[in-house]
Here is the input.
Amino acid sequence: MKVLKFGGTSVGSAEGLERVVHVVNNACRHKIAIAVVVSAFNDVTDQLVHMGSLAASGNSGYKTILDEIRKRHENIITAMVSAQEQSGLLADIGLLISELRDTLHGVSLVRDMTPKTQDCISSFGERFSATVLAGVLRSMGIDAEYLDMRPLIKTDGHFGSARVNMEAAYQNIQRHFSIRSALQVATGFIGSSSRNETTTLGRGGSDYTAALIGTALKAEEVEIWTDVDGFMTADPRKVKKVFSIESLSYEEAMELSHFGAKVIYPPALQPTSGLSIPVRVKNTFHPEFGGTVIGRKSASAFQVTGISSIDQIALLRVEGSGLIGVAGISGRLFSALAKNGISVILISQASSEHSICFAVSPQTAEAAQKAIADEFHLEMLAGQVDPVIIERNLSIVAVVGENMRKTPGISGRLFQALGKNGVNVAAIAQGSSELNISVVVPQADESKALNALHEAFFLSQTKTLNLYLLGKGLIGGTLLKQMLQQAKILAGSCDLEMKLVGLGSSKKMIFDENGIPLATWPKILEEGEPLRLPRFLEKIKALNLPNAVFADCTGSEDVIGIYEDVLSSNISIVTPNKIANSGAYARYKQLKDCAARHSVKFLYETNVGAGLPVISTLHDLLASGDRIHKIEAVLSGTLSFIFNTVSHDRPLSTVVREAKNAGLSEPDPRTDLTGLDVARKILILSRETGLALEPGDVVLEPILSQACLNAKNLESFFKQLESEDGIFEKKRALLENKNQRLRYIASLENGKASVALKSAGPDDPFYSLSGSDNMIVFTTERYHDRPLVIKGPGAGAEVTAAGVFADILRIANYLS
Here is the structure.
């Protein structure tokens, strides 16, 4: 035999009831003996409670709601039951409505709502739904009858959450079912006291009713039919990549349910576990799916079975020297809370016994504070116990699983995942059974914590990186193109999904936490809202996504202004923008310290050598204990091209024009020819070695004359440059006769940085430089006689974007 319980969402409409009938029909067709337990239609119990409140306050608005409830049930009857069979069923509902109306009228007269009366009113939801479902089944040719469980489930008089007399309930259920052949459609949630007063078993009590029937009849299985595919690895409303759990142990299911997984009422597992009766959670809207089986053992292949959360709790701290070594303190504390009907969700105590903290619902926080103050009044007056502190806006996240037992590294993995995403833990609790680790986190970080932990424990082979990008120009646009091209490869061979969740240009910005399509972003961006940096930052913080990276592909000073806020939000930064690192040393140091303080990355490899691994190589040398003696570098692809191309028949002015026309230089070539960009790059390298240099400390030898630099416009500049071609040619020809070549070289030696036009002979590494290549030469303790040379393209959108892409991938590897 099986017991099938259908929740409110399963029976809340004619369409839902049709699915229920299909499930019941299928069981009958396969000759499976069943009993059915049903909850109130969706939202009806809440409406009943609200009507009671209205009636108790003298508000006649309850009549309108009662009429809505009547119409809702009658409409389902007329939609699903044949005309000749409707009258009897409508009459049954009419009698129940009249009884409820009289009860509410009585409440409105006395203007009082007792717990006993509230239970009576709340019972009508199940009585309505079971009456309707039994009638619908009969009209479909199934021998079914309504079963009011109140005479069978006997309870104490604790209204609202009555305790069941198990022995009496089991005997009554067995006796009733032994003499009934028709399919019983039973009311869930309700029972009656020894004085035959209606009681309720607590919200979710219909599951409990099904479990009691299943246990009394030694059922083969109890099926809980709801609107989800069983227990999920996390809350699908807060975590995207969840999946159904095939099996759970009773203990795991109770832990997950206690900490927010509202799939089953935890007390329902107590009677069934005693006889090892499996409880299967299935989806009425997806009946072919197997759902989750709850039994004696879990069969999870993961170290963790599920992650759950309670999104609103308050944390109370009881501290003081008077707690240390005093027997009975905890007993007094929790007895005081129990006397005031305050339920404790989580407890954590310091080993020093100086502090005890516990979590309660926010609604009971003040009452708990008062109860403790009353209990420890004398100790507080003597200064032995401090006033109780309440911390609000917190959530509990619980990691549950039988496989956690005696498995090293679970806690480390948990706290590493939270730490890397900047989630602060306010309290920790772990039972000696090692079945559950619970942490209290800020409510604002609950979703981030859930996603980070779910990825760490269930998707450890697949990482999701959430990218915010400012700048969709040459470098930013090329980066997006490269991301699109590599998406399948990264997902396949690297198990990495890179989601573009925020994008901004100089005019527009868009956000989508599910990912902006990389193939169609230009069209979507056109429809975005106007870009405002404060709003962009505000949106990043509001989304609060785990594994987040901010990429600045602009050259804007304004964007640098939000870097510290971004890093402080535990978001890593990747940028080719040199402004932050080549300005005042104090700002450079502040950003580096901020990144370290928040355990995030601040990567800017492309600041110096575009796609060349210059900064990372320098870091590796220093980290491995090498000492830098000297750095020499050609750090401008534009200047490299110019000095590699100039010849006796191609003077400087001609080559500069060629560079401009080919897009190898800035629109105004003087930007490159001033050498300021090279000076910024050697300054950044100097700082990376540990030198606290300011921009003015770099000695810069100009390439151009002052007349060229001061020219009013580009044409005037080129005319002036042409007039100086001869001077430059003489210098070039003289060096050529000596078998030497001109190179614009940045140097760092003995703590001093400089940039100057120098000659390079055949024995010099820079002599063979060609095209627009850059070259960086490290002379170190280890690479002394034969310096370490890095050479390759040092400019261009493709290589720079690739360098930014590589930095982003480094962060993805760090997250794993």
